[in-house]
Design a protein that fits this description.
The longest helix is centred in the middle third of the chain and has 10 residues. This protein is 21% helix and 24% strand. It is of the alpha/beta class.
Length: 136
Amino acid sequence: MKIAVSSSGNNIESEVDIRFGRCPYFIIVEVEDKAIKSFEALENRATAQVGGAGISAAEIVANKNVNAVISGNVGPKAFSVFQQFNIEVYKGVGTVKKAVEDFLEGKLEKIDLAGPMNAGKTDGMGMGKGMGRRDV
C-alpha cells in the first residue's frame, strides 16, 4: 500500500503540512504488513502555479499510484481528482511518520467532504470582500 502525505519537509520526521496543493513536499510512504517499508520525498512542483495548484498536486500524487492521502486540508478541486481515482483522504497532524502510524492504527479521521479553497493561505489575500479595509 502507498500513502501520500503533504509535508513541510523532505523526510518522515517532517510535519504534516496543513495545505495540500501548496505544500512544499509529498512524502510517499510504502507500507507492508502494517509497517513503514520505505519512503520517497517528492518536491511539489505545483506550488509555483498561479492557479490550479490543487489539481496539479493531486495528479502528481495520483500518478504515484497511492491508495490514500493524509493532509491537514484538501481543497475541492484536489478532492475531486482523488474521488476520480478512488483515493481515500484522511486528516493528519504531527510528523509524517506519526500520521502514517495513526492511519495504520485506524486513528485518523476520513475526509468525505472537501475543505475550503486556499486553506492555510497566509499572504493576506483571502477570498473575503473586505479587501483588507476596515470601516471606521
